[in-house]
Amino acid sequence: MKLASFSALCMTCTLVACAGDGEGLDENGRPAGEDSGTLQPTFQSIQSLVFTPACTGCHAGAAAPLGLRLDEGASYALLVNAPSVEVPALMRVQPGNPDASYLIQKIEGTAAVGARMPLNAPPLPQATVDVIRQWIADGAPNTSGGGSQKTRIEFAHLIAVSPMRFESAPASMREIVVTSDTELDTSLLQSDLVTLRVSGGDGEFAAGNERTVPVQVRVRSTQPSVLAIEPRVTPLAADEYELRISGSDPVALADLAARPIDGDHDGTAGGDFVLRFTVETAR
């Protein structure tokens, strides 16, 4: 397959921008500060040459449009096997199936909802679309981490993707996304392993007035593991929330070598992963 030249890539840089106004591009339409290069059908290439330089000015943070954050470290978990907000029956990226991927439908103008992307800009060159299609057809692998980095991982760490620690999230938030830096034994997931609690209005979680919010945990990807934790009660009430994933006895989430996660990031196995965030008052 012929890869897109960088000139074709430049038009891709407004792929998920809010208004297709060229923010993040120089006067020639290239990502500001980027050297010329060739877009490859890999996630790292798309992240480095498209999402980071041109899209994160808008698609970043808890208020990202339609919950789609494209920051490095967050974008993969919110694209691959992630339901589209506009058409929940379709995944934003369906590995192995470009035609069923909502991302492709949006940039090709075949989506049943909303406008073609990039918004208020000419359609992407087919060569650019073909590169993105090829990455999806290849299974949409995550190539953002190097092999040498993975060999240095001693214990699995969890990372909050959306919302991040102490962020404010909108009441319309449908899921909490957590990713790992390695593959987890997701067969260990069970109802008492992941808990979500809401403060009783005082922002505290040891006063005895907290309430548990029932959740459903979905495994979105495995290498590395991505967990989508869906509250069964929506919209969430405005308050402080605490998500806890057990890394301690009697049941602990562990990697494939049966080593418990380093939930508290102290360099040793064990310890719960705790994420606290705020849900805003609905507007």
Would you write up a description of this structure?
This protein is 17% helix and 17% strand. The chain has 283 residues and is α+β, with helices and mostly antiparallel strands.
Structural key phrases:
disordered N terminus, about 15% strand, 2 domains, alpha+beta, about 280 residues, Cyt_c-like_dom, 5-stranded mixed beta sheet, globular, metal-binding, single chain, Immunoglobulin-like
Work out the number of β strands.
Answer: 9
SSE ordering: HHHHHHEEEEEEEEE
Total helical segments? 6
CATH architecture label of the largest domain? Sandwich
Q: Please name the CATH topology of the largest domain.
A: Immunoglobulin-like
Binned strand content: 15-25%
Shape field: globular
Helix-and-strand structural type: alpha+beta
- Average pLDDT, rounded to a whole number, is 83
- The Cα radius of gyration reads 20 Å
At the first level of CATH, the class of the largest domain is Mainly Beta
Which sheet architecture does the biggest sheet show? 5 strands, mixed
Q: Residue ranges: pLDDT <50 for 5 or more in a row?
A: 1-36, 145-151
- The percent range for helix content is 10-25%
Summed up, what is this model?
By secondary structure, the chain is α+β, with helices and mostly antiparallel strands.
